[in-house]
Amino acid sequence: MSDSSLSPRLRFGLELVLLARRWRGVVDQRLAARGLSDASWTPLVHLAESGDGIPQKELAERIGLDGSSLVRTLDHLAGQGLIERRIDPRDRRLRRIHLTPAGRQATRAIREKLASAEFELLADFSDDELSALLAGFDRLARRISKLQTPEGLRPNED
Hints:
Layout: H1 8-32, H2 38-50, E1 54-55, H3 56-63, H4 67-79, E2 83-87, E3 95-99, H5 101-121, H6 127-147
Antiparallel strand pairs: 1-3, 2-3
Helix pairs in contact: 1-5, 2-3, 2-5
């Protein structure tokens, strides 16, 4: 992938980004066969995992999209009958997103495709190796969260 003469610390970020793109490419290819793009299947999976009925703004944050991009995606998913927007009874300004029965069925099929692709991609790893990688991802995610706080966003002091 990249220059292996560099230290692991200097290679890690670029390797992770390139690998994530390739991973996503394989997964997207498998799901495209069902007529789903990353933009359409990701919100469905997040809705299913969150317990459904989360505010539109929260869904946008979870999947890393700005609000206007998510609105177009949700319009498309609603047009397919996979989601519906409901006004929050406690705050009528909020729209909560819910999976429809067809959306739940589509999400089950998506998860099956994801599991199949991931099983294939991870075939060369033991459960212990995967657990170690996930523990590393968790540590990295905590560090990223810490750096994204207002006090963590100060300029790098070189």
